[in-house]
Write a structure and sequence with these properties.
The protein is an alpha/beta fold and 199 residues long. It contains eight helices and four strands; from the N terminus they run ααααβαβαβααβ. β1, α5 and β2 form a beta-alpha-beta unit. α6 runs parallel beside α8. Pathway: Amino-acid degradation; L-alanine degradation via transaminase pathway; pyruvate from L-alanine: step 1/1.
């Protein structure tokens, strides 16, 4: 990363050859050979491809497409703008965990979204309970059009860290799919603010 930000380091003999090669490869993908240049609106293609390959490996071979990956600073706001359509006749709803952090709630309110809370189970380490999610979704559909499920990992403000296998287990995927799909996109925030869109 340092070599991409300060390419003069590529002339420094103290950098290993593989580091130089990766930095040069990335810089070739950037207009003008600079990471400071404007990129495609969804991010640098090479990085999106690498992220897609990583997600496929991480999720046990479940395919991921670079076309479905958006790399942005302030991605939370960008994704909300893509999902929330304030001109729709029915208000757009987003399921959010309780507890959650205030800035996300404010971002939803600023976009005109209806907030649909689902409560995490404190007794089981602030876990997401599918039955609670199902109830929240059912309640939300009475007053708005739920389009997204927000999952925060690590939990904010709880600090609870869920390992990826918890969300990637076939049983959890199956339960979430039966509960939410095909009507919802799934926003995961983090690896620290981690966002995942389900079809």
């Amino acid at each position: 990363l340092a070599a991409c930000l300060y390419p003069a380091l590529l002339e420094d003999d103290s950098l290993p050859l593989d580091v130089k090669q990766r930095a040069e490869s990335l810089l070739r993908e950037c207009d003008g050979g600079s990471v400071g240049s404007y990129t495609d609106s969804s991010g640098i293609a090479k990085i999106k491809h690498c992220v897609s390959q990583y997600i496929t490996r991480r999720d046990g071979g479940v395919p991921s497409s670079p076309d479905n990956i958006f790399i942005k600073s302030g991605s939370q706001t960008i994704m909300l703008k893509l999902l929330i359509r304030s001109k729709d006749s029915c208000q757009t709803g987003v399921l959010i965990p309780v507890p959650t952090y205030a800035s996300f709630t404010l971002a939803l309110e600023e976009q005109g979204a209806a907030i649909i809370p689902y409560h995490l189970c404190e007794e089981q380490g602030w876990t997401l309970q599918v039955e609670e999610l199902r109830k929240a979704l059912h309640t939300g559909r009475k007053t708005c059009n739920p389009v997204a499920l927000y999952i925060c990992n690590p939990g904010n403000p709880t600090g609870t860290v869920r390992n990826y296998p918890h969300y990637c287990k076939k049983s959890m995927q199956s339960n979430l799919a039966k509960t939410c799909l095909p009507s919802l996109s799934c926003l995961k925030t983090y690896i620290i603010l981690y966002i995942l869109l389900l079809p």
